[in-house]
Amino acid sequence: MKTIFVAVTLTAALAAPAFSQSLGEQTGVNSALGITPKTEDFIKEAATSDMLEIAAARIAQDKGNAEEKKFAEQMITDHTKTSGELKDLAFGDLKSAIPSDIDNSSQKKLDKLKDAKAKDFASEYDPMQVSAHKDAVSLFERYAKGGDNAKLKDWAGSTLPALQHHLQMAEDMNKARK
């Protein structure tokens, strides 16, 4: 019995760092602490972010005001491009998997947008865009500075200015709403 307890404890202790890195990225702890994401986490988070941006923008094209529709068109164009580039890198050099579906947290955000009345849409969409782009900028900055795959690190760095521009656009849109 003592041997089993020691084996389970040792296994949990050795596995904890692997789980905590992924959990840290999911919960935002790594971002708050400035910790570089693992390559797999970066790919997953970047792909999920692109999927969320594209899906949210499609909703904004139906429900948004003129400024939100213009912003949405830019998000669809830019995030479709980065999504394709990420897939090329992940499948080509990295042989890494990319999620094919949006995660539960992102789906809940999309559901809120879908359920929002047209008059309330801006109060949901605009702050969501600020938050999503702050997260994306943080993710890409951290990987560009300390990522362990040179090609992906370069791509993160070269993609960062567009994400920073998106963040500025989202902040301006959100301020104009108030």
From TrEMBL:
Signal peptide: 1-20
Domain DUF4142, residue spans: 38-173
Family matches, as Pfam families: DUF4142
Keyword vocabulary terms for this entry: Signal
Gene3D superfamilies in the record: 1.20.1260.10
Keyword Signal: yes
Record flagged with keyword Plastid: no
Name of the protein described by the UniProt record: Putative membrane protein
Species for this entry: Bradyrhizobium erythrophlei
